Every structure is written in C-alpha cells, then in structure tokens.
Amino acid sequence: MTDAHSNRKNEHLSLATKFWRDDQKPVVGASFDDVRWVPGPLNSRSVETANTQTSLLGESFEWPFYIEAMTGGSESTKKVNEQLATVAEMTGIAMAVGSQSVALKDPDQADSFKIVREKHPNGFLIANLGADHPIENVKKAVEMIDANAIEIHVNVGQELSMAEGDRSFNWLDNLKHIIEESPVPVIIKEVGFGMGVSELRQLAELQPAAINIGGGNGTSFYQIEQARDRKNEVPLDLSSFGLSTVESLLAAQKADIDVPIIATGGIESAKDVTTALMLGASAASSAGYFLSVLMQDGQDALEQIIRTWQQQLPKYMTLLGASDLSQLPHAPRLYSGDLMNTIDQL
Ligand SMILES: Cc1cc2nc3c(=O)[nH]c(=O)nc-3n(C[C@H](O)[C@H](O)[C@H](O)COP(=O)(O)O)c2cc1C
Fold it and tell me: Measuring from each residue's beta carbon to the nearest atom of ligand 1, which residues come in under 6 Å?
C-alpha cells in the first residue's frame, strides 16, 4: 500500500512535468490574458521604492509569491524537495511541501519532507495534508518539518477522478476542528478546480488564516489521474468542471469575505502574479511551472527564473502606479467580453 502511495507521488511528478513541458494543460475558462492592464494617472513612483511586501498568516513576506505544494514521499521526490528548498532559501521565498500523509503511514518517508527544513532552515515552510486527517496528524505533519503554517487540501474532483480515491466527503466539521486546534495558521486549499462564491462563503465562516482558491488552467489532476489510471472502470469526464484561477479570484471578490486569498493555478510569470494581486490575492504561488523548469533545466535555471520575477515585479508595480501591493487592486484594467460574461453569471 505504502509502496503504491510512493509510486503515485513519482507518477504525479513525471506526468505534471510532461504536461507542462508539452504545453498540454487543459483550458477551463478565462486566463490571465483576459485581464488587460490599462495606463492610469501619472502619479509619482519608482522601481527602487516599490514595496513588494505582503502580510499573510501573521507574517510579513518580502515577496508575494512562493513555491506551492508538490512533493515528498519517495527517494526521487526527496531530491526534488531538496532542490526546491535550496532555491527557496537562496531567493528568500516561502515553500510548501506535498501531502505528508505518505510519511505518516510510513515514517521511513519522513526524510523526504524533513530535507526541506534542513535546506531552508529559517524559511517560512508550509506543511500539507488532506481534509480528512485528524488533528493529531496535523500536529505530526507540522512537527515533521517545523512548519510555520499548514495547507489542508480539499480535492473532491481529484479524489473522484482516481480509481482508488475517496468517495464520500464529510470535511466541514473536521476542517473547523483543525482550524481551531492547529498549532500554526491553516490555509484551506483547492488543487486545480477553483472555488465558487458559495464554497468560499462557507469556508470563510470557518475562519481559516487564508483560502487558496486553487484554480484551473495550470496543473490538472483530472488530466494526471486519467493518464496514470489504467484500472479505472468508471472514468469521469471533468473537462467542463471548475473555475480558472482568474474566475475564482473574481468569485472571491463577489463572495466579499474577510479571509485573505492565495492564488494558485497556471501561474507562470511575474505578470501572472501581478494580475492575481490586482484581482485581490494577497499572494500567489506556482507549482507545475517551477517544477517543469527544475526538471528540464535544473536548479540554477529555477533560481534564475525566480530572481527575474523578483526584478520584474517592482517594474510592473511601477507601470501600474502602485508603490505598494495594497494599491494593485485599484489599478485600472479591462476584462475580455467572455470574462465579463462569467462575472455576470458568478
Ligand atoms: C507534481 C505535483 C504534485 C502535487 N501534490 C500536491 C499535494 O500533495 N498536495 C497539494 O495540496 N497540492 C499538490 N499539488 C497541487 C499544487 O500545489 C497546485 O495547487 C496545483 O498544481 C496548481 O498549481 P500549478 O498550476 O502552478 O501547478 C501538486 C502539484 C504537482 C504539480
């Protein structure tokens, strides 16, 4: 069972890399290109003084983006976590690990997660578990990497896509309990199907430290599970299920909730990060794109990409007349006709 679990982690990694490399990610709705930036008033501003800091999870971060949850749980994924954490350390950004449930079942796999704290000793690290785990497991996952926060993923679409996935979901009471009892701030996170207005309002009532809307147009676990699943006798067609990251961010605006939003799903440039912040996110994160750079071009290339984003972000802020991130949601923009239609229907 545990071997199968580790094997699944390896398959996720190689298939996600393949779909990003071949640019085969499915498109579910409006993309970042559906939001155009419009010149605003010529107020005084400068790249040098543009302040990229964001406050979230009780912490102040120098950069409003981080490496999102991907992996751990096998020998080869340990190497990937080691490289990701080294890059996070060198560039001063936060990092999340993949689901630690495999290491709770098989303690031999814990090293593949602990390596992240070793390589990023003073960094902000985010633990990761599914929403069905008891609070005892949450505490163990946090302790395993001395985490500063934990993501609890809700992934009905992914579970139903898998032959071996869960079939019933009674998560709300457990999520409430985890949020109340967790030793660190809790982020509730989707993994690629996005979140709509009603779900966001329901989750906000639980008062998590943040919600990651986890939208589409990036890594698709529906696509990945379909590709790896040779035994699924009842495959589902989820090609028209879900909201993109841009749509989910607009849904969060409509939901008018008092919980910080993190944007993940298809983020592959500093421009995407900027657009996500314009649409109300407090931070953004990237998984598949960073992974594909690492796997294809290596650790130095990933470090270089992140440093480039760190140079571009203050320039984009200056272009948009923002001297700090709180001004980005006020930057003028144009939405495409399709996106306007989506906003009306949300
Ligand atoms: C190889 C791989 C493994 C992942 N494993 C996890 C996981 O264990 N837990 C989780 O919450 N999200 C996991 N994700 C989802 C990402 O954290 C992210 O939500 C999703 O990939 C969308 O972002 P992207 O389009 O930038 O990849 C994984 C993503 C990838 C690419």
Answer: 12-13, 16, 68-71, 98-99, 128, 151, 153, 189, 191-192, 214, 218-219, 264-267, 286-289, 291
> In this predicted model, what pLDDT tens digit does every residue of 206-235 receive, in sequence order?
999 999 999 999 999 888 988 887 677 778
Q: Can you tell me the distance from the alpha carbon of 214 to that of 165, in angstroms, rounded to the nearest whole number?
A: 19
Q: How many CB atoms within 10 Å of residue 4?
A: 8
One-letter amino acid of 26:
P
Which pair of tokens denotes residue 152?
A: 């609890």
Q: For residue 130, how many C-alpha atoms fall within 13 Å in the half-sphere facing its CB? A: 14
Domains and CATH numbers, the chain: 2-345 (3.20.20.70)
- How far, in Å, from the CA of 70 to the mean position of ligand 1? 5
Contact 276, 194 (CB under 8 A): no
Rounded to the nearest angstrom, the distance between the alpha carbon of 43 and the centre of ligand 1 is: 39
Ligand 1 binding pocket mutation candidate from 9, 15, 19, 70 (most atoms within 8 A of CB): 70
Over range 147-164, report the average pLDDT: 91
